[in-house]
């Protein structure tokens, strides 16, 4: 332990230093409060023995300044006979204990041993608390691959800073989980976490969702309503699929980020908001900027820290632990007891390309658990696309067995592959994908959820 002795009497400094060095402590000294304050902060003293009465800066002044500067060492005050009231005041202001001069050598050692034990116990409490908190934060994020662990480490690092974060990756890779990790690891953890999918809300309603509206601002606005910016005050607003944001709203979002205030639809006054923004997209926003579909000034405002999540097909080592995680989750939710996947079934899972990423894997695991006849899931319980990943919908009709001739199953399989491909070629732009597929936007959203593609 690192001990600092602060006393204006050279004899006291020398005597206490020799005593404590014999006990194995690393001891430093200072002759007044100012010097002691500097050394205590720079050397990060674990325990400080400080005299109450000193020139320049007395013991109580030292204690106040030390705490203001963030010092967290244990402070033991040394007081002259008859000055116990000062010692009591010091303890009320944050000192750990006090020693009344003159003191016997064993008194000094006893007080320091107690302080040392308290410090060790406190550090262990902090370590265990941080470990439990980290375990709770990472409960839903299962990762073994280098790419995902690098993303998690970056999320942990940026969490303590207020910078805006951009999370990119294909649909289903876990962008919202990373956003929640950043929030729960940040100083804003006790504040609200408000997510919104910018691509799932009609354009005419999105402004009201984000910024709120006044009573009578538009048809149906029967009462005033706060938007998500206001509801997220003191916390985090997660803007998922920000690439879907209409350009008219991009301007208003930029203004809100720059000025820290929002204006409800139908109002003329602005309201201050304190919100941390985390944005996410499956689209290539840099290309969207080059092609004029996304504002460059907004892009640079939200892309301060960039975290990219690799697709599941590039991190197959994550599949077995993810499967175990989903087995545990759905055994509890469904009230069943499935022990695992047969080797042949796991081989199919590892060979599949997973266009819907982790969300699709979860969908497949849950489905297989529901359909399983025994405690182990075999390959026959898997969807056709997973059972035959190499051939998919292009397999010749002559090779199909009798139980594979269902028009309903084959149509669903074809539809799923077409939607996955449309999302791939449009970089996740659901509006464009709906046009290519000749589906309504609402129908596409429904089918994406149905097939576990986003």
β-sheet strand percentage: 5-15%
Radius of gyration equals: 31 Å
CATH topology of the largest domain: Rossmann fold
Number of separate structural domains? 3
Mean pLDDT: 85
Q: How many strand units? A: 16
Shape estimate: elongated
Provide the helix percentage: 40-55%
CATH homologous superfamily identity of the largest domain:
P-loop containing nucleotide triphosphate hydrolases
Instruction: Return the structural class.
Output: alpha/beta
Span between termini: 54 Å
User: Major sheet: order of its strands?
Assistant: 2-1-3-4-5
Residue windows where pLDDT falls under 50 for at least 5 positions: 131-138, 392-396
CATH class of the largest domain: Alpha Beta
Judging by the overall fold, what is the CATH architecture of the largest domain? 3-Layer(aba) Sandwich
The description of the largest β-sheet is: 5 strands, parallel
List the total number of helices.
19
């Amino acid at each position: 332990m690192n001990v600092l002795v602060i006393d204006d009497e050279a004899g006291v400094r020398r005597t206490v230093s020799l005593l404590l060095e014999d006990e194995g402590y690393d001891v430093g000294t200072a002759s007044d409060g100012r010097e002691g304050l500097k050394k205590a902060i720079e050397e990060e003293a674990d325990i400080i023995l400080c005299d109450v009465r000193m020139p320049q800066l007395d013991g109580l002044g030292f204690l106040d300044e030390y705490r203001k500067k963030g010092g967290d060492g244990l402070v033991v005050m040394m007081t002259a006979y008859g000055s116990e009231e000062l010692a009591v005041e010091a303890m009320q202001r944050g000192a750990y204990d006090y020693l009344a001069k003159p003191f016997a050598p064993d008194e000094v050692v006893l007080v320091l041993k107690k302080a040392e034990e308290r410090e060790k116990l406190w550090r262990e409490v902090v370590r265990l608390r941080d470990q439990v908190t980290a375990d709770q934060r990472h409960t839903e994020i299962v990762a073994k691959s280098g790419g995902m662990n690098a993303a998690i480490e970056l999320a942990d690092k940026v969490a303590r800073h207020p910078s805006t974060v951009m999370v990119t990756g294909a649909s289903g890779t876990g962008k919202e989980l990373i956003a929640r990790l950043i929030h729960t690891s940040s100083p804003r953890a006790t504040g609200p976490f408000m997510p919104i999918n910018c691509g799932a809300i009609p354009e005419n309603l999105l402004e009201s969702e984000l910024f709120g509206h006044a009573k009578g601002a538009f048809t149906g606005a029967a009462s005033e309503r706060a938007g998500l910016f206001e509801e997220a005050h003191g916390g985090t607003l997660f803007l998922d699929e920000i690439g879907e944001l209409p350009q008219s709203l991009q301007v208003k979002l930029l203004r809100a980020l720059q000025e820290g205030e929002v204006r409800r639809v139908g109002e003329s006054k602005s309201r201050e908001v304190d919100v941390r923004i985390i944005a996410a997209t499956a689209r290539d926003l840099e290309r969207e900027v080059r092609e004029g579909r996304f504002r460059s000034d907004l892009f640079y405002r939200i892309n301060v820290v960039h975290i990219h999540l690799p697709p599941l097909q590039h991190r197959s080592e994550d599949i077995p632990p993810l499967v175990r995680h989903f087995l545990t989750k759905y055994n509890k939710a469904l009230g069943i007891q499935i022990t695992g996947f047969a080797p042949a079934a796991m081989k199919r899972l590892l060979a599949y390309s997973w266009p819907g990423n982790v969300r699709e894997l979860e969908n497949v695991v849950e489905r297989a658990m529901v359909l399983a006849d025994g405690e182990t899931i075999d390959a026959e319980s898997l969807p056709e696309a997973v059972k035959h990943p190499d051939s998919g919908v292009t397999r010749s009709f002559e090779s199909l067995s009798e139980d594979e001739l269902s028009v309903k199953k084959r149509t669903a399989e074809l539809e799923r592959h077409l939607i996955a491909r449309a999302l791939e070629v449009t970089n996740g732009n659901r509006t464009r994908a709906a046009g290519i597929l000749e589906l309504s936007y609402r129908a596409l959203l429904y089918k994406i959820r149905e097939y576990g593609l986003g």
